[in-house]
Amino acid sequence: MSTPEPANSPAGPPAEEPRNRLLMAGLRLFAQQGYSKTSTRELAEAAHVNVAAISYYFGDKAGLYRAVFLEPMGGSPEADLARYSSPQLSLTEALAGFYAGFLEPLKQGDMVRLCMKLHFREMLEPTGLWPYDAAHGIKPLHDGLVQVLCRHLGLPPDPAGCAADADLQRLAIGLAGLGVHLHVGYDMSEALAPGLMNGAEQIERWSERLVMYGLAMVRAEAARRGISIKEGTNT
């Protein structure tokens, strides 16, 4: 079977691999419009390929969506987990690593933000890939954060015990929410306070503040429990 010829014009885009162009076009259109409102014709036109190229590389529109959704375009869950899960890290260092997983993509431009937007859209308009993403992408990161909190709050290190602690789960979800909102509410943040998300310097300032806010949340939970933050946390 021969590869479908891309429908490029002489003044068209650079001759990148058609499959990669389809992935990039799919990311943008699926993130902006959703799966159901994006047609194969739109995808092909945006990628400057023939419609047959979608079938050749991905089988159908669903196959293209799955590839766009699952193929990493930014960091991987394993890399993000490694940023904050080491027992050698202080609480401050662990939170800095945790929030780096949210903030680094904001420095990398529109494509990575679209990737995040696509994942959030899948939560609201599920196609069936959300359970996979939750189980293999999000849950390991959440469980890792729960273990970090368990360790620094001086709680028994039994993973099952930590997982059953409802308030520890609430704290982990609250901490993650600070980072998630910077992506979900990116456009709103720009409308409310223009410039706070622009450039690496502003993102670094967010990193410092999220760590500060996160430490305050952990301290509040420790105080509620009547315990002290474990020594050696650089707090």
Series of secondary-structure elements, N-terminal to C-terminal = HHHHHHHHHHHH
Q: Strand tally, please?
A: 0
Question: Please, what is the oligomeric state?
Answer: single chain
Structural class: mainly alpha
**Regarding CATH, which class of the largest domain?**
Mainly Alpha
Strand content: under 5%
Indicate the overall shape.
elongated
Summarize the structure.
This protein has twelve helices and no strands.
Verbal overview:
- With 235 residues, the protein is an all-alpha fold.
- The protein has helices at residues 18-33, 40-47, 52-58, 61-70, 77-82, 91-103, 110-124, 130-152, 159-164, 166-184, 186-192, 199-225.
- Helix 6 crosses helix 12 and helix 8 packs across helix 10 (166-184).
- The longest helix is centred in the last third of the chain and has 27 residues, at 199-225.
List the helices and strands and how they pair.
Blueprint: H1 18-33, H2 40-47, H3 52-58, H4 61-70, H5 77-82, H6 91-103, H7 110-124, H8 130-152, H9 159-164, H10 166-184, H11 186-192, H12 199-225
Structural descriptors:
235 residues; mainly alpha; Arc Repressor Mutant, subunit A; Tetracycline Repressor, domain 2; 2 domains; elongated
